[in-house]
Amino acid sequence: MKHHVCTYGDLEKAGKIPVSINGKAIVIVRAESGGVYALRDVCPHKGPCLSDGMLDKGCSANEVGEYIYEKDKEVLRCPWHSWEFDIKTGKSLFAPEKVKVKTYEVTVEDDGVFVNV
């Protein structure tokens, strides 16, 4: 079922907005590209709200002390222990096949943002 959660204008200003749909905590995230994504707003590690964390670029390295910022990968970082989750897939950067958060389908119609739960 599709739920109106916010306007695109509000999301554009805030970057991310926490919402509750049928008792489920969800965070709506706007990527730099303008795309909109929805993830479960609970870190699977210890349970804090991911919406309290920071949006950032994904970072990889080929050796110790090297930082390669991946412009096509945006992450939501947990505020407690800095676990990072790809905003498009919900997969963690450190163990993508084992640790992830649920994602939800998002549509933008006119200025409205809708999440399918």
UniProtKB/TrEMBL annotation:
<dbReference type="InterPro" id="IPR017941">
    <property type="entry name" value="Rieske_2Fe-2S"/>
</dbReference>
<keyword id="KW-0408">Iron</keyword>
<keyword id="KW-0001">2Fe-2S</keyword>
<dbReference type="GO" id="GO:0004497">
    <property type="term" value="F:monooxygenase activity"/>
</dbReference>
<dbReference type="Pfam" id="PF00355">
    <property type="entry name" value="Rieske"/>
</dbReference>
<keyword id="KW-0479">Metal-binding</keyword>
<dbReference type="GO" id="GO:0046872">
    <property type="term" value="F:metal ion binding"/>
</dbReference>
<protein>
    <submittedName>
        <fullName>Rieske (2Fe-2S) protein</fullName>
    </submittedName>
</protein>
<dbReference type="InterPro" id="IPR036922">
    <property type="entry name" value="Rieske_2Fe-2S_sf"/>
</dbReference>
<keyword id="KW-0411">Iron-sulfur</keyword>
<feature type="domain" description="Rieske">
    <location>
        <begin position="3"/>
        <end position="115"/>
    </location>
</feature>
<dbReference type="GO" id="GO:0051537">
    <property type="term" value="F:2 iron, 2 sulfur cluster binding"/>
</dbReference>
<dbReference type="GO" id="GO:0016705">
    <property type="term" value="F:oxidoreductase activity, acting on paired donors, with incorporation or reduction of molecular oxygen"/>
</dbReference>
